[in-house]
Amino acid sequence: MELPVVDISPFLQTDKTESSADAKKDCAKTLFDACHDTGFLYLKDHGIPSAITDEVLALARSFFLHASEEEKMSIARLDAGVDDGDSARGWQRLGDNVTKGLRDWHEAVDYYREEEGADGPPYKPLLGRNRWPKAPLRLRAAFEDYISRMLELGTAVVRAMGYALDPSREDVFVEQTRRSFWVLRMIGYPPLESSSAALHDGGETGISCGEHTDYGCLTFLLADSTQGALEVRHRSGTWIKADPLPGAFVVNIGDMIERWTNGLWKSTPHRVIHRGVNDWRISVPFFFEPDFDARVKPLTKFAEEAGGLPKYDEVLYGPYLQRKVESNFY
Fold first, then answer.
1. In terms of CB atoms within 10 Å, which of 69, 241, 259, 307 comes out highest?
2. Residue 203 pLDDT more than 60?
């Protein structure tokens, strides 16, 4: 059982020929089925050069494997109100992240959109400034360029998703993500000490990253060539491998898309179990999210199709995200 593959190039092109219109329809059909049936897919022909993705992964690997403890601590995540912390941004040591009460076995550095005019320090939760390491020297410039490219790609994909749901309203998600409160994580997974450590044995430590769904709209996973680590729970209940496909992102929909579609498209649980012998697994997921002040509730079309009854309440995305992030650490 494999994830579907979606060629997104028709929604990156500007020509409006008959053939391009047909290509958009074909892409939208494949995308709709992927979102409906698995919630996960491989995204190819996305326009991000491999030279850029390769550099991002190499810089992340260099940071995790070569930065000293002192260098990592200099950008450590701090609680809001402590120095320049905002409870979210910065480096997290092994075991800092918690999923379903168990400590995940990975290090990470989290970056978020920086809101204009945020007062501080001290900063309110989520509204601080990103904490960049001094080395590798190229990391900040390379990552900021990558983020700008991913924002463009994210807009193209949510436009394609809108088209797939209703061609007359292809911008339905674009309208709520024009100032996407994006998140980028740089993650390093050391190998679990033994296969038995990959399962809860009554202690506090879980697996590399415990079973979860993602909070927002879309996740674009960039990962190294490690095989057998990422697992996706199929609608049937079976866990399937989502190994890297050269030149493609692994993409999954998040809880806000599920909410907007009133459950027509569901976010899919997934987990990471890295049993490699020696090498760390490196991944850099980019989360394309709603605007911080977006109000997310089932779209009228989908509520009506369910007999006029929305299955989900409205949430204001920023405070919703804040509650979720707090649960990662406390």
1. 259
2. no
Number of H helices, E strands in the chain: 7, 16
Can you tell me which residue has the tokens 């994210």? Answer: 154
Q: How far apart are CA 259 and CA 245, in angstroms?
A: 29
User: Residue 34 and residue 233: Cα distance in Å, rounded?
Assistant: 14
CA separation for the pair 229, 197 (Å, rounded): 14
**Cα angle 220-8-230, degrees, rounded to a multiple of 5:** 30
262 dihedral zone (left: phi>0; alpha: psi -120 to 50; beta): left
Determine the Cα–Cα distance for residues 260 and 158; give it in Å rounded to an integer.
12
* 174 secondary structure, DSSP code: G
Backbone torsions φ then ψ of 259, nearest 5 degrees: -65, -45
- Cβ partners under 8 Å of residue 166, min gap 6: 172, 301
317-326 tens-digit pLDDT: 999 999 999 8
Sorting pLDDT into bands at 50, 70 and 90, what band is 254? very high
The b/e string for 295-312 (b: 16+ C-beta within 10 A; e otherwise) is: ebebbeebbeeeeeebeb
